[in-house]
Known about the structure:
Blueprint lengths: L1 H14 L2 H24 L5 H34 L6 H39 L1
Helix pairs in contact: 2-3, 2-4, 3-4
Amino acid sequence: MNFLILGELFKRMNEGGPFFMYPIFLMLLICIGLIVFSFLKQDLEGKLKELISHVSLFALVWGFLGMMIGLITAFDAISSIEYDVATQVLAGGLKIGLLSPTFGIFTFLVARFGIIVLHLRKSKNA
């Protein structure tokens, strides 16, 4: 069952464009690792939280950059076609274009949730 979920994840990542999706996945793993490390280390100065914040924001913007480049490329291809484009083709292209910002938003939210939990833990211990 877990292999099916992983297979579907990597299928979507390849579908959304490996150049943008795999770096976002790497940033997600970095954010999760930094959150866990911050829990274990007791980051009193907040440097790890700031680093998590920067990495998550970069993942978000990287995803939107992927969407913009993908949409520009798709609209260039559509404008060069002399006949009408089927709505299924257009909808499929838009879906693929939205995969990288969606994954970037997910990474951003996971990291932000981790930062909130770290803030709550710090204020509880203070």
